Structures
1.
Amino acid sequence: MYKRFFIFILLLCIATTCVEAATLLDGANASASLGSFLLDVWSVIKTILGIVVILLILVFWQYILETLLYLGIFAGIGAIVFGILFGNAGLGAVIGLAVAAFLGIRLLIDELGPSFNGILLIAYYIISAPVFALNKLEFILVEPWRYVLKRSWIDEDSKPFVRSVLRVMSVLMYIVTTPLRLFNAIIYNIFIHCVTVLYDLLFEVFMPSDPEEGAGSVKMWILYFSLRLVKYLFWHGFLAIVESLIWTVVDVFIPAITLYHGTDLTASEAIASDPFRNAYMRNTSTWSYGTFTASTSSWGGIGVYFAAMRNVARSYAEDPHRLNDTNPVMIACRVSLGRVINYSLAPIRVYNQAGQYGNHSELNHYGEKNGYITGEWWNDHGGYWEFCMFDWESLYDHPWRIRPIYILNFRTGRAQHIKGGMQHWLFDHAVLKNIIEELKLKRFFK
């Protein structure tokens, strides 16, 4: 129906243009005034636009009425809330309209479907390019010598001395890169992570996912609106802001960098979700929430894997042997790597265990024995750096060293909405105790 309607509009506009153009040509012969001619052209354009607007209103009047009602509800709620709390109903109405527009755009994108997903993905890469470049610069400056240590070529007797020298140089680079580290921490923790979490929480207020809080029922939606507003936007939103600010400070003293983990949607939701705020995770999911499952079949050790390049994470996510569903995703994480061992600086017997045919548990034993948190390895087969956070005792259940910032769904081309919002990674006794120990520099300079 709509296709025929738009064809009709197009034909009508062409016919109107032809008639008006003929009139203009006659008028142009009678008058030499350019200004008068341009005014006549503008009158033709206004006529065509007027016809199009009238026809659009006649066909889509129901949708227009629903949209106006939708905007009115949000403006009214904003006015009431801000009027009661802050005595400024006008500001509340404007904020309500902005929220309605924000959610409406999201719904419109959903309706556009797969044909629009590729455009969204391209937009993501373009918009994120400056931020990605700054993170890449930090990645290079923190350890610039890694690029000459892709393979084990240093004499075995010299490796202990080289490791000691590079440890001192790491401290110097830690000091030099402090301003860049602070800037990246602000960008990723506050502007990206905090905004992502607040978006999820805002979505939960107006489009709840839990039937017990109003999903699927207009009556329940209205009844529990105040509860959702306080629970998600005010309380968890406040915690998200506080957490983002604290992590920004922590990241300056305990170096963290943004790395990427490829997986599927099922696993990513289990990792990032809070089961107390996600009804599906709480009732039906078989995954253990908050857990990065250690890989036992990868080539750089037994643990949780990350890449510095997004295309590497995407290749892992799109591997059909690894997927549990049809949604390959990439989790962008702030990762505190701790003490890192480049395998090329390890004894040759350890270095030889990395790769397809090595005994990968030996890499973990070497790391545990010598106080390393992460193994760094150049994958010759793929031509990229891999980072394996050794996980031989499920260290990263409810982790603090690995903190999801956002999840990019490659199928839809946009950030994945986490129902109920991401869980908070800071407010845990064990986490706080571990951070305090780390701040004492027991591990970083060991």
2.
Amino acid sequence: MRSSKKTKTELRLSGLLFIVSGVVLVVLLIWFVVLLFNLLPDELPFGGREKIGGVSTKLIFTFLFLFLTGVLFTRSKILKRLNAKPLALNISLLLIVLFLPTILLEISLAPFVGFHQRTSIFQQDNQRIWKLKPNSSGRWGGVPVKINSEGLRGEVIPKQRVNDNLRLLFLGDSVTFGYLLEHDQSTIPSKVKSFLEQEIGDSIEAINAGIGGYSPWQSRLFLEEEGLDYHPDIIILTIVLNDFTQKFSLDRFGGFWKGYQLAMNSQYFFSRMENHSNLLTWLRRKAQQKSYGFNPVERAEELEYGMLQEIVDAVPSDRANEAINLTLSEIEKISDMCTMNNIEFLLVFYPAVFQVEEPELLNRPQKLVDKFATEKQIPYLDLLPHFTVKISQMGFQPTQIYLDDTHPNSLANGIAAETISNRILKMISDSLQTNSP
């Protein structure tokens, strides 16, 4: 039988351990408050700054738990009756030594992890490098998404046509796919479908073949391998600024990896656990950085946006000119495929948020594509002037209709869908007039 005095001392030590641990959390909390008010460098990954407030809240609740547990150990009459073994002190030490550091790291690393979560919606492809995995689901960009049995987002449209309804095939990248948008109804293809059905009064079939990270060369390969099998009436290819430059981080174009999508994709249990552990994500990134000798995500962004700046500022390097020419060449190939298969084609340029903020100064890429489309007689729709007029009428700032620098929210896609739909209606009208006797 252990003495009451010894048990009492052990309980006090246990309580002090919890209270001291709570004080450590207060120090961390103060640090994150300083970070929140921009008194420390703000070089955080995508989504990191949004997580700071949540970190502070979790630290406060953890502190309260530890503090109250410490008080309980020192004040509780029930715990004072423990007299068999130093159970309370052993449990306290076990919790604090093993679990407290892990909990602290899990909470405090959140801003330094951001929203770059692992996913399971992609798979490797020999030709296109990656594609969407059929019948998969997962979080992408922090929101849940589902991929249908055809390996696309949205409702399944059978390749074999069973009616004469207007069928649209949308090609593009993450903007077409609907990155950061949880609901399929918020994507461009879905909104165009809804708008046209209201105008035409008949059912429309819209296929969303947008895949995150795709450039026109990958959209062309999809069209060759699968897209033409849908027998669409009109193909809409939406391009954005990084379609010109994103490819150059890929090893196929002299880069260093197989792309962000595959780097973030996972089919294994341990890797999937990263989505639920900031610590595991941070450790993987450090291992990845050691393997490459640099941070591949940051390097890809530096390469991409460096060349974009050259293109926008009208001082492109040889590498930037190569990016422009390669992209335009792939667009022309898609247009030629449509002509050969008697399919209408529409090229759409979706602007970045900073272009909408200063449309007259930063619209050089749109002018380049306009000149190219005119020369090649490719139907072309520049959304930049439409966005500028529309948000001015609505009294919005450009940042209010974008989720980040590139990806639009549902409201912006509504503006784009109305503009695209009106152009499609004109194409249908012109086609009917041309084919009429």
3.
Amino acid sequence: MSGKLMSYLTKISGDAAALKKFQTDPAASAKDAGLSAHETSALLSRNPGAIAAAIKKGGGLAAAGDDINVTIVVVVAP
């Protein structure tokens, strides 16, 4: 797998337009990014453990097999 969720999180952390789209409609933004149903569900849960597990399952950085700490911050519009 390609690690789409990790790539997506990286994108929205540095691209104001992508972040705004996520804040406006997270589900549509995730779908447009090509995230799987599992990745989208984890992201929308805003649960760091579920997001980290989805990253690992999807072949992101955590899939390297090393015991690493993952910090995930999801910005939500007020």
4.
Amino acid sequence: MFATFCSMLVIYLNGVSFHSGPPIVEQARNTIVFDAWTTSERRIRPLTSLRSLIAIPAFSWKSQSDLDHSFRANWLVIAGAMMTLALMSSRSALAQDPRIPGQGFQHAAYAPLPIPPSPGTIFTDTPPQEIAPLMSAPTGHASGYPRQMPWGNGHIMIADPADFPRVKAFDVHSPGSLWDNMRPNLFGIESSDEWDFYNLINTDRPDFTDATYSVGKGVTILESGYTYRKSEDSELHIDRRQLPETLLRVGVTDELEIRFKYVGYVMTNISDQTTGLKTSAFGNDDLQVSIKYEVLQQDDWRPMVTFLGGTTIPSGTGGISAYQTQPFANVVLGWGFRRWLYLKLSTGVDFVKTNDVTKVVEGSFQEGPLGLNQVDNITQWHQSASLLFQATKRVGGFVEWFSFFSDNSGDNRASNFVDTGLFIYLTPNIQADVRIGERISDRVNSVFTGAGLSLRF
């Protein structure tokens, strides 16, 4: 542009006029600039005509000195035009390079960056003091996202950390603040993108509330764990252990996964406080088959909506199996608030066959004490709320409430529970977890704890 200015100045000083034709450089006319703070469109006006710039003007002269002067002026004009063309060509070449974000070439993997203007340019007259806060704000998609996870099967992708789902009314652009949009975790410890909360393995365990996200197309997650429960009331004391709580999740599409769950080996000890007798039951529980589907993605206040449905298959050991299918369904809602903070709510229903011991009595010498079971088919509803947080690069956690209630059983009173736990990420694809919780009740003392290990591949 400086060369163009010099050329025009020389022409002006020599009293030369040139023909102005329609602009040929249409790219300059049609380039759209997005203001970083208003996202409004403004078109750049062409500064000059390329055809009129390179046209050799018709000089008139009366002497050799005039001729020499005009000759030099012509060459200055041509040199200025050539320099302008070189600068414009280099600018065009840069715009075609997908590694450099700009207003030119666009590719699916390289979305444009809104570029904050510089003071004193043709883009804007924004004062210098207004530039700094714009530069600290998130700039949207960066080139190279999504990209493959360094560890995994090639289908595990890393999303742009700046593009996390959130309620925009809560946006804060204050670097160093606890609520800054780009704070990577609760303690503000910087980490690479693959360790971002939304890029880590996302499991259904150890909290009661299912994960809102499916595993993704071509991705598999294998979850396993151990749980111990102890319940005591005025009549019965019950201890229950189950292992390995295996859940296999296989991604069919980016939104749909199929699931196979095997609670595993169940061991139950029952003590009757009235008779003083004890009994035990152990064996394999029924297999569960289900699907999970992401119905809607979060859009500002509108939550992410995920549906989960399936049934049990009567495949367990006698005394443990329900001997019939037991359908179930669940809807999970999810809101992202920060890169490290996520809320899940769920409502579901289970059509179950209960087989509960209500009393332990004397049996034969060979059998020993026997548990008297109450069998019933009930509709059991459940609700839950779980708040997830990422504390550091490798440690996350949750706090949760969940409840069960029914409308056609002998006791329709709700049972409420609270629990908390930690996620420990050995790698972005390997998660260990622990949890502990209890029932909120003045009738029953109930506590539970457990641990697990999950893999993504």
